Amino acid sequence: MKLDEYLKTVAAKVDMEADEYSKAVDSTLQKAASHLLVSGGKRLRPALVLLSAESIRSGASEDIFQAALALEWTHTFTLVHDDIMDGDSLRRGRPTVHVVWNEATAILAGDVLYANAFEYLCRVKNATSESKVIAVQMLAHSCHELCEGQQEDVSFETRSDVTLEEYLSMVRKKTGVLYAAAAGIGAALAGGDVKQISALYTLGLNTGIAFQIQDDIIDLLAPSEVSGKDQASDLRENKQSVLAILARDGGIDLSAYHKPDLSKEEIADAISLLETSGVLDKARGMAEKLINDSKAGLSVLPDSEAKTLIMEMADFFIARRY
Amino acid sequence: MKLDEYLKTVAAKVDMEADEYSKAVDSTLQKAASHLLVSGGKRLRPALVLLSAESIRSGASEDIFQAALALEWTHTFTLVHDDIMDGDSLRRGRPTVHVVWNEATAILAGDVLYANAFEYLCRVKNATSESKVIAVQMLAHSCHELCEGQQEDVSFETRSDVTLEEYLSMVRKKTGVLYAAAAGIGAALAGGDVKQISALYTLGLNTGIAFQIQDDIIDLLAPSEVSGKDQASDLRENKQSVLAILARDGGIDLSAYHKPDLSKEEIADAISLLETSGVLDKARGMAEKLINDSKAGLSVLPDSEAKTLIMEMADFFIARRY
Fold this sequence. Notes:
Chains A, B: It comes from Methanocorpusculum parvum. 2 copies of one chain form a homodimer. With 322 residues, chain A is an all-alpha fold. Chain A is built from 16 helices and 2 strands. Chain A is globular. The relative contact order of chain A is 0.11.
């Protein structure tokens, strides 16, 4: 199966479960909790849980499907709470939960999704209790780190001197650890040994960091027509993206571009400056190294279609253009 | 050991752990997360976890101490989030987390405590993985119900026709299920059988509901000098307390008392009205029945000092005057 077909199949299954969840109970809170869940999304974390399980034991992804949902529910919980904190009113083309209802309901909606995630992990079939405890530990640890990462991200907004080390630490927590948990949980529940679980956990961690670096690159390069977002918003807002940090470290002054309205020409100038100075290549190189190291680490796994798909997925994380 | 001595010992241990937690990591988020934890509190849920474990197996409370912390951390998480939702600026005599820092930090602080709770459950010593999975399920289920309960409580604020059934359902979720989880988790981790776990879970559930009924009674009866809170605040605000609901059901009109300023005489009048009409006795009777049924259910446990202390604790829940 091709990666894009696989991802579509997983997304369709998760969409269906989200849809059922939204209809299961007639309470305001459940409606609010399912609002963002049923708004689509790439469902990459569930796909990684399932592929990871399948790479350990053929057929395991059926058994541990509830764990895939646990990861998507967790991701959604963080988005619902992040939207409150960031005051964002739109997400996936729909008004955010705190806008449709109110902040109190949005806080609780996130909290319910959070609880559901742990309930789902315990419901996995054909997995040992030992592996479930490992899964719970990984998810809880990730949530803990995610909160730290979000806190750091918010604190970066009022700074213009964030170091590369600080950036990578924040991204590891905010994006890396949940991908790490996705891969690690899939491996653990499918009965992987310590080496296999560790290799997949590390792959999730590193590909998650690479994913965020690629996001920063896309923000600058992708025209609005392609991405559906404002082009170069990080640059306009002087956000401490990997590009901003590498540029500063290289003595490149981007301050002329820190203004709300940038013309197409100005954006092209900035891109050209970051290309010729090697900043963009440096960022691309960082992401590539993370992906290549992750893939190399999978040598502890037997060859399988699932393993191939995981490696393709890692490549896709940095190949995507929007 | 006497109950009050036991509770003091547990509270001192939990206080010490909270203190260590607050010093463990130097991050804004950890400081915010520990702010309310180190502000004291009765630590009744940890005590119930430990007594419950001890009633199953002598010495078990030492092994599963981390589970006691998990329950206190969970309780604290709900308070931090509730304070944001209710816009409360003081708790245990200190400014609330969102007041000291800001809402974003308070949301994250609650989320971190929530994650910690699940991490702590997995760290318990000398317990089977099976029992840890049961403990995680109970905690996650409680958190889910707690959110529903809080949502219902908030929705009651704009209503004056809440039924006794709706009230009891809300109180079961908002207060009962976490006490139920405390007792059930202690029993499960200590190796209790299904009957024992179930009896202790039910005891926690019912005593939690009785606790809230007693809280409603205290709100009316306890003079500010004793409770440190405004006397009869529920009555002033026409809150749908058990007394308000039983009074309405009995055709008793309390509307003259729904005003911000009530004199001592007016409060005394209202108390007298609710005493002579039997409303207060009815509420007391409900709480007593819940406690007595719970205690009777403990016949599946062997006699022990811990079992006696649990029964005394249940009695204390409705004997307390503030």
